[in-house]
Amino acid sequence: MDTRELRTKATQITPDIYSLEIPTPFSVGAVNVYLVKGDKLTLVDVGPKTDEAWQALTEGLQSAGVRVEEIEQIVLTHHHVDHCGQLEKVRQLSGAVTLAHPQAAPYVELDEDFMHFHDQFFLELYQKSGVPSDMLVIIAKFHKLMKTFSEPSRIDVLLKHKQRVPNLEEWQVLYTPGHSQSHLSLYRERDRTMIGGDHIIGHISSNAFIEPPRDRSGARPLTLVQYRTALQMCADMEVERVLAGHGEIVTDHRELILARLQKNWSRTDTLRSLLADGEKTAYELTTLLFPTLYEKELPLTLSETIGHIDLLTILHQVEVKEKDGVLYYHL
């Protein structure tokens, strides 16, 4: 196959794994998609729905000797659009079966009933957090982002923790929530390789995004607590390389995880010091923790703040009271 004119080329990591760098329109930069040649030709993630991403995906596969039409199954690490946006386009061309965590399904399907529940969840969360009314447009912007960079698709096979990946029997599914409620990583013991999605990234710390609960009547998940627990699980594993969803391969996962956990506690200490001079809302704390970032990245920064409030609450180091529908935290 002639690949001389290809601008995007796959990088061979092992005899059966190729990495494809797919551009995204987001601040996180390019996303890594992985081609695994097992019993069935498998793509792990697909990139966002943009013309540039589609060109990079098709060219990258071509350089690895594969056409999109030959992909037989797709495993999603999680439901964020930079990882799953092109899913339906690949499915339509290839007829590939999609495998993912159950909680990815309503996002991938863009289920309107769920999206309404999703928007109402965030409206209530942001109002209770003290977010100014003029900033609540961020909820509609997120909905628009979902529909711009992905399209409705479907999940065929639901994956759960510790099961084997169908048609990739050497690979084990790990449920690694925190960055998203649907997040999965894949692990192969033979060569101690982990495909880590956004769970473990070398150059940036993954944000533990607040998301609605699985049970619509239940409490919201404590995402930072989940993330720390999943990191600790991975730190106990023998891993030689983590193939990250963004950036370079991670070869020092234990040291990196320890640094991330320590940074969590450092930020929690900072939040505690900010509360020392009086009660504050989650939004007010966010503006102090992230003064140059909160306006541009409110969902990310507010999630981070609420996550650290959760840690302090678990430790009985912060208390909360409600006034006029807004929550105020104090030591």
Automatic annotation (TrEMBL):
Role noted for this protein: Counteracts the endogenous Pycsar antiviral defense system. Phosphodiesterase that enables metal-dependent hydrolysis of host cyclic nucleotide Pycsar defense signals such as cCMP and cUMP.
Domain of life: Bacteria
Keywords per UniProt: Hydrolase
Organism: Brevibacillus agri
Signal peptide: none
Substrates-to-products reaction catalysed: 3',5'-cyclic UMP + H2O = UMP + H(+); 3',5'-cyclic CMP + H2O = CMP + H(+)
Stretches assigned to the Metallo-beta-lactamase domain: 30-246
GO molecular function: hydrolase activity
PANTHER family, A to Z: ENDORIBONUCLEASE LACTB2 (PTHR23131), METALLO-BETA-LACTAMASE SUPERFAMILY POTEIN (PTHR23131:SF4)
Protein name: Hydrolase
UniProt cross-references to Pfam families, sorted A to Z: Lactamase_B
